């Protein structure tokens, strides 16, 4: 069949050449003169009429079978397509012009700019942590599963060694006070052995855990707390547990050897937690993270945690009454204390809280004064996890504020926390302590005296209550 069609086409081509006509024109002309000889084997055969002759040149011209309505319809369709094409092109050009103008306004700077590194060492270290582990744990207390590495302070098997690189990364390192040099060299160390444990403190889940920061020589303070506001046991129907948090006092800090006395105290009361690290002011932050680790492993069932110094007086009864006003579910994220806002580092060199610019730059997040603060046990577990991803800072209460910020939380100010004492004229008034939770500072003798005042059944204190919602006059209530 293919051969026959090829032969027919060759014959047509030969005849066309002899008459100087295009083969296709000749084919259609021949088919018109000999109807029935050709079958329709192409779309052109079916749609095109046989060619006619141009009167001027005599050549064949194809014409399509059509009528006036069809021609008119095709013309309208072509015109519509042309108008649509023009509209699309105009709108596209106008849109591109607007995009160009927008891009010109938005990209006044370089598209990709490497973020500038902070000149302060702490800020750079935190930026490095954020780049690797930026996983805020606001919705849970479990550790992120996709750590791309383990922070060196979580590696409990490694011994702590000074980080000599800080001597080259901080320009004025050698001119800093010795306490800063010591802190910076060991800032990456967070794992220290627990040399004195208190395994029975949380054998039964406590309602309130009192965690008191102390140092080895402060035997009198710890004993005064045990005999007053920190007495362990059942109080107002709730179980209270108390632990004292200690490091080791080094001979380099001119302390005598208290190790045997601390061992005897721990054996006698069973409430001492001591880690093998140098107990200094800057290492209070280290004490914070070590306690959080212990809490998560040994006392995670505690409903509330009260963290404080060993030179404060605490009205435990009033604190329990305050917590009793809420359900545990409503206090799941409670963190209250004497909150400090809009604060920053002190730059005066001789001050206790002096921080050099080479160490930290910026504003502190809201934080509760380290004299004492109260938070829920569930929040304590979350603080434990997020603290692992926050660089140690030499001021412990500021560090805790940084951890809260990472969790997206802000501590709540409570007027019952007086970390900067009360007016002098009220300090000897027993009734002044009835509505307070914490007063700082107080000596061991003051603790026992005030505790006896507020627990005297014969004492009558008239305390003015606040205005009610209707604006009525304040009333007096005697206790």
From TrEMBL:
Major location category of this protein: Golgi
Annotated GO biological process: poly-N-acetyllactosamine biosynthetic process; protein O-linked glycosylation
One GO CC annotation: Golgi membrane
Catalytic reaction equation(s): a beta-D-galactosyl-(1->4)-N-acetyl-beta-D-glucosaminyl derivative + UDP-N-acetyl-alpha-D-glucosamine = an N-acetyl-beta-D-glucosaminyl-(1->3)-beta-D-galactosyl-(1->4)-N-acetyl-beta-D-glucosaminyl derivative + UDP + H(+)
Pathway: Protein modification; protein glycosylation
TM segment ranges: 73-94
Cited Gene3D superfamilies: 3.90.550.50
Cofactor(s) the protein needs: Mn(2+)
Keywords, comma-separated and alphabetical: Glycoprotein, Glycosyltransferase, Golgi apparatus, Manganese, Membrane, Signal-anchor, Transferase, Transmembrane, Transmembrane helix
EC number: 2.4.1.-
UniProt superkingdom: Eukaryota
Location(s) in or outside the cell: Golgi apparatus membrane
Assigned protein family: Belongs to the glycosyltransferase 31 family.
PANTHER family documented for this protein: BETA-1,3-N-ACETYLGLUCOSAMINYLTRANSFERASE, N-ACETYLLACTOSAMINIDE BETA-1,3-N-ACETYLGLUCOSAMINYLTRANSFERASE 2
Protein name (database record): Hexosyltransferase
